[in-house]
Write a structure and sequence with these properties.
The chain has ten helices and twelve strands. With 384 residues, the protein is α+β, with helices and mostly antiparallel strands. Strands 1, 2, 3, 4, 5, 6, 7 and 12 form an eight-stranded mixed beta sheet that branches. It is globular and about 60 Å long.
């Protein structure tokens, strides 16, 4: 029997400049990562809906009959709408999780159920399908792993339901602007299920790829972004974005004459980086970029959002002549290190070995690459 198989993938994101300043109306610059999440959706004949998330050790399954009568509560696939309190309660009941849960893995199940019921369950017809999701992105590290997951699910389900361009085989570049907009809207709704009030920047970067500016709730996609290599270094230190943002707010309110110029300087760094993108990117551009990374990191230290582990990463990479800064909220999480074009692979291996020896996880990747990709084909499956 020939059954449909859909493969979708979407990148994570890194904030290059502008974190914390963006809270005060300044611009933040974010770019897609080469680290991606991949979804494989496969039609089956076992009357089950199966979700496997092996990276977090989660497997969940439902009989298709468990979805009978739920489609009316979720609207329709062409008009994304946020899940209200009643829908969230229904999702939690279906997932078998507590009403008060804040566990990210359990909320990921709710996001899946929300998208599946909204997009794939139509006219009370529930498809029998399996979903396998794998990711190279570290979880809860400020690199947009949940948005990458949400974008993959939205793209795969919309392709399955015939709501976006039917991309066959290896033609992964054929999603239209309208397709991407619909995927992004649905992914944002799933992010709301997971995070409550997300900014929207993570799902935008994961959907469209490349790089974009984010300011005051709106995004502007960059027309050009040079190919840049970086190291992502994960401190594995848990932190609360809410607490860190509030700590800067307290300093801002108590010492406005001191903190406002710091935020203005961060905005100046973001603008200077933008100017590099508007001309031919050369060796001089790299030198300026290194300076901007170092200055931005020091300004974030002044704001009190660094962490001993992040300072350690900056010192280790500086010993090798490289430049690093925190990305995201700070207080732990991740840093990134700019990798020069002409660096020898053995030298880079020494840097990564030194960082790994201190207990940090390192990933070499590129930024500014392709956003969501999806394709559909037919596979032969034996039915017993």
């Amino acid at each position: 029997m020939m059954l449909r198989r859909i493969v979708a993938s979407a990148p994570g994101k890194v904030i290059i400049h502008g974190e914390h300043a963006v809270v005060y109306g300044k611009r933040a610059l974010a770019a897609s990562l080469g680290l991606r999440t991949e979804l494989t959706l496969l039609e089956t004949c076992d009357r089950l809906v199966l979700l496997r998330l092996p990276d977090v050790g989660v497997t969940a399954k439902w009989q298709v009959d468990e979805f009978s009568g739920v489609s009316g509560a979720f609207g329709n696939s062409e008009e994304p709408k946020a899940a209200d309190a009643d829908v969230i309660s229904l999702l939690k009941k279906m997932a078998g999780v507590d009403e008060e849960t804040n566990d990210t893995e359990k909320l990921a199940l709710l996001a899946f159920l929300y998208l599946f019921c909204s997009i794939a369950v139509t006219n009370r017809i529930v498809p029998s399908v399996s979903f396998d999701v794998r990711s190279l992105l570290p979880l809860s590290a400020g690199l947009g792993s949940s948005a990458s997951y949400s974008v993959c699910l939205a793209a795969g389900l919309l392709l399955y339901a015939g709501k976006v361009t039917q991309v066959h085989g290896n033609q992964r570049q054929s999603l239209t602007e309208a397709d991407l907009s619909l995927i992004n809207q649905w992914a944002f709704m799933a992010e709301k299920v997971i995070h409550g009030r997300p900014s929207g920047i993570d799902n935008c970067v994961s959907t469209y790829g490349g790089a974009l500016f984010f300011q005051g709730g709106s995004t502007t996609r960059l027309k050009r972004m040079p190919h840049l290599r970086i190291l992502i270094v994960n401190t594995k230190v848990q932190r609360s974005t809410k607490v860190l943002v509030e700590s800067v707010r307290q300093k801002h309110d108590k010492y406005p004459d001191i903190v406002k110029p710091i935020l203005d300087s961060i905005e100046g760094i973001t603008s200077k980086f933008e100017s590099l993108l508007n001309k031919e990117f050369d060796a001089d551009s790299y030198e300026v970029m290194k300076d901007l990374i170092e200055m931005n990191q020091q300004l974030l230290v002044f704001l009190g959002v660094s962490h001993p582990s992040l300072d350690d990463i900056c010192q280790i990479t500086a010993h090798f002549g490289l430049h690093s800064k925190l990305t995201g909220a700070g207080g732990g999480g991740c840093a990134f290190t700019l990798v020069p074009k002409d660096i020898h692979k053995d030298f880079l291996h020494k840097v990564m070995s030194k960082l790994s020896g201190q207990g940090y996880d390192c990933f070499e990747t590129a930024i500014g690459g392709q956003g969501v990709e999806a394709s559909i084909d037919m596979v032969e499956t034996s039915v017993n």
